[in-house]
Amino acid sequence: MDITSLDLSTLQVDLVSGAFSLTLAVFIGSALFFFLSRQDVALRYRMAVTISGVIVTIAGYHYWRILGSFEAAVQGEALFNEAYRYVDWIITVPLLLTELVLVLSIDAARRRSLLMRLVPYSFLMIALGYPGEVSDSVTVTWLFWGLSMVFFVLILWTLFGELSRQIAEERPEVRPTLRGLRLILLVTWSFYPVAYLFPVLLADAATAFVLLNVGYAIADITAKAGYGLMIHHVAKVKTEVEEQVTVA
């Protein structure tokens, strides 16, 4: 994308680069926390916490590339590469779904069944979103937004149903934590389809560009680092409850 044509103000450039820089810093710090704190949870939940660390590490690398691409694009040295974000999502979103499934107390057969549905849904959601993201046609953007949203809704519907069922089966001490995880899942993921539409909803292209990229940065922080912290919290609570039951 040629962003020199947008005629971004100094403030707008600083907002976007600051959002990218902040996101990168959050991911670096989160990765250290997840890798160092995985010993705080029971062995059966450590893989979920480890995956949280892997997710923010991958996302941090891509934000480093996004920040570099943006700085070069502002100087007119290259086009702004929007593909970095989609490459990141195509890797990290299936991992986000996997860590959630791993932290739930479900049997192996149900776990496989969930992942066999959720992983293809996530791939199709992201792959269908990209053509609309990079298109200059409002019609094309709306078309691929709608197609992507089909799988977005399928993912949330599947996870919301599974979490609701699991909450009913968990011990009373764990239920409030899982309800919080369910709410965070719904809120953080809802940022993405809204930010996606800024370029077609706003008349000013520069403002739309800024809101899109800052919006995605906020969404990525909450949906990756924030969500990972919640996964860690769920694993920690479940570990403590299980240890108390064992002692009793």
Q: How would you describe what is shown here?
A:
The protein is an all-alpha fold and 248 residues long. It has one domain (9-242): Rhopdopsin 7-helix transmembrane proteins. Helices cover 83% and strands 0% of the residues. The chain contains eight helices and no strands. The chain has helices spanning 10-37, 46-74, 83-103, 108-134, 138-169, 175-196, 198-201, 205-247. The chain is globular and about 65 Å long. 35% of the residues are buried. The model has no long low-confidence stretch (mean pLDDT 88).
Characteristic terms for this protein:
248 residues, mainly alpha, Rhopdopsin 7-helix transmembrane proteins, 8 helices
Q: Structural class, please?
A: mainly alpha
Number of strands: 0
Second-tier CATH architecture: Up-down Bundle
Q: What is the quaternary state of this protein?
A: single chain
Please give the share of residues in helix.
over 70%
What gap, in angstroms, lies between the N and C termini? 61 Å
**Over the alpha carbons, how many angstroms does the gyration radius reach?**
19 Å
Give average pLDDT, whole number.
88
Question: CATH top level?
Answer: Mainly Alpha
Count structural domains.
1
Show unreliable segments.
Answer: none
Count of individual helical segments: 8
Tell me, briefly, the overall form: globular
Beta percentage is under 5%
Q: Give a quick account of the main beta sheet: strands, pairing sense, barrel closure.
A: none
Order of helices and strands: HHHHHHHH
Q: At the third CATH level, what is the topology name? A: Rhopdopsin 7-helix transmembrane proteins
